[in-house]
Amino acid sequence: MPNFAGNWKIKSSECFEELLKELGVSIMFRKIAVAAASKPAVEIKQDGESFYIKTSTTVRTTEINFKIGEEFEEQTVDGRPCKSLVKWETENKMVCEQRLLKGDGPKTSWTRELTNDGEIILTMAANDVVCTRVYIRE
Fold first, then answer.
1. pLDDT tens for residues 32-83?
2. Ramachandran category for residue 103: left, alpha or beta (phi over 0 → left; psi -120 to 50 → alpha)
3. CA pair distance 28, 100, nearest whole angstrom
4. Which of 24, 53, 54, 77 gives a 20 to 30 Å CA spacing to 86?
5. Cα 59 to Cα 78: distance, rounded to the nearest angstrom
């Protein structure tokens, strides 16, 4: 089983603003979010298939607790409440499908993959727009 545990810092980010635009976030809030999310601190704790992920920026901190294969509540990247279900796609890659609790909106999901180089590749998707962020251990 891959070990995602640790403190992570961002190495690269692509298409974050485009993702927020697809989600309908206003230009003013997109600029604030992009600036704040340029240096997120990510803490991951793992106990077997149970995970705790805390992502901290200057504007917002999110925390999620989940177990692979068990539905849980969280928020989409733009803050809408949703039900999420994480499954293993491969031995080192988890995939999460999200379902909004209220209203309509873009189809959202995320993945986290631990590479052979020890990096985490996070993808966040809204419809066909995909943001890719690469993290390295601190």
1. 988 888 889 999 999 999 999 999 998 889 999 999 999 999 999 888 999 9
2. left
3. 24
4. 24
5. 13
Phi, psi of 54 (to 5 degrees): -115, 125
Q: Which residues pair with 131 in a beta bridge?
A: 124
- Residue 128 contacts by C-beta under 8 Å, 6 or more apart in sequence? none
The pTM of the whole model exceeds 0.85: yes
The two three-digit tokens of residue 5, written as one number: 């545990």
Contacts of 132 (CB under 8 A, 6+ apart): 12, 13, 14, 15, 121, 122, 123
Task: Output the six-digit token pair for 133.
Answer: 């962020």
Going from the C-alpha of 41 to that of each of 62, 102, 123, the distances in angstroms are: 11, 30, 16
